[in-house]
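@channel sequence for tomorrow's demo:
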Amino acid sequence: LGVDSQTGVEVAIKERGPVAGHEVELQAEDDGCSAEGGQTAATKIASDESIVAVIGHSCSSSCTPAAPIYNDAGITMISPSCTAPALTGAETHVASFLRTAHNDSIQGKVMAEFVFNELKLKTAATIHDGSPYAEQLQAVFAERFKELGGEITAQEAVNVGDTDMRPVLTSIATGKPEFLYYPVFIAEGGFITTQAKEVAGLEDTILSGADGMISPDFVAAAGEASEGMYISGPDLGFSGTLYETFIADYNEILGSDPVSAFHAHAFDAANMVFDAIEKVSKTDADGSTVIGRQALRDALYATKGLVGITGKISCNENGDCADPKIGSNHIEAGVYVSVFTAG
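structure tokens (generated this afternoon):
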């Protein structure tokens, strides 16, 4: 997930060239997709006065503690993949946080509508891993599914790092759900997927995850058990000259096609930052380039109609900047095939 987004930023730097007359230097940190990792990375970055802005973090569990740290330092972050609704909630938003990723208040609703209206299923269960991303996404899905007239038979939780999912799956099986939605990450998702096939009562249950599991690594972890799964997330059907050039540069840098779902969102976030820097940078008396942190933040929030790979980027007062197009992908012979798009 993180490498995919980092490569998207590297492509943006390569294609953009100098910004405000200066070459762009990227400092990469690993947030570990955890609260602890996010806090550590943010503390390190915030102490460096030469850093202008942050593209990241990668996971909502990391973005949540990082945002206040950046806010205290006057730094602005733009996440390409932190999708938890609370991050841009009217009462919970921290001013340092913006995102080019979609808001899971949209993803959860779209997935519920796909399951109820397109798959014609009436019962579902969910599993989350306690992270803000997974917990909030499954909650939105469940709420919308019930509003449509469906029944949620169970809402269970596992812990990050768990490997034996059978007790939770056995409990869920008693409700005989037609659909099981677990928007977790690759490791836990792989164990749930393989072990669900072993649990009596889930033989005919359709399995489903979300964008934290869009990766060849998930297919490798789950093996044949992943075949036929549905995976919600951003519509990956990008097209046009901009994306064709992007893919060529991505391959040149990483040596492969995109390895996860948010490379284009990171590319768009980087270009947001570059455009804002061009607008607010000034030259002081000794010839140095000065970028005011509040001025940069104001310029980022003022972004309207920026044409990116993911659509037209426009930011609202709570930091949601995406032009969200949410889809459902069907895993067929190890390939994520788009079968539904909304937005």
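heads up for whoever presents: The mean pLDDT is 97.
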